[in-house]
Amino acid sequence: MRALRLLESHPDALEARLVSGKVTFVHSRIWPEFLTMATSGQAWQFSSLSAGAKKLLQLTGEQGELRTDTIRWSARDGKIGDSARELEKRLLIFTREIHTERGAHAKIVQSWSNWASRANFQLQPREVESAKGMLDALLQQLNQKYRGNGRLPWQTQAKP
């Protein structure tokens, strides 16, 4: 648990749901490629987004940063946590979990430009296909080395 806390607070580690929708620590060496994909606005990011996810994405874009426990949210928008997870898995937002003053769980939700500003990181746009190819190749190497079957959000699901 201590090692996880150290990773979460390390300035060279970005936490995102990159591999198979699971929390993945992304080293600063590949932030340019990661952020290129996260901000690429590709179809895999926006197809079939729920109404709640669209609303949360819009609010995040307008405000830059917000807390899920302070947003005015109606039942017709679904559960706010579900909307946040949907956007995380499509790399559309940065989130981090917090414990509120009342002991409940909530998330800080940020746009990538807001995150980059707070992390003192200059967004360095790359060519999307180049960034995608680099991340695909890196995951393929890790899958081979560790006999894994991880997938990136833009990769199609493996056929059984």
Query: What separation lies between the terminal Cα atoms?
Result: 35 Å
What overall form do the CA principal axes indicate? Answer: globular
Structural class: alpha+beta
Instruction: Describe the strand arrangement of the main beta sheet, using strand numbers.
Output: 3-5-4
Backbone CA Rg? 16 Å
User: Main β-sheet: number of strands, strand sense, barrel status?
Assistant: 3 strands, antiparallel
The overall strand count is 5
Mean pLDDT: 93
Order of helices and strands: HEEHHHEHEEHH
> Low-confidence segments, ≥5 residues, pLDDT <50?
none
Number of helical regions = 7
Number of domains: 1
Which band does the percent of strand residues land in? 15-25%
Range of helix content? 40-55%
Identify the quaternary structure here: single chain
Q: What order do the helices and strands come in, and which of them pair?
A:
Layout: H1 2-9, E1 13-19, E2 22-27, H2 31-38, H3 43-46, H4 51-63, E3 65-67, H5 80-89, E4 94-99, E5 105-110, H6 112-118, H7 128-146
Antiparallel strand pairs: 1-2, 3-5, 4-5
Helix pairs in contact: 2-7, 4-5
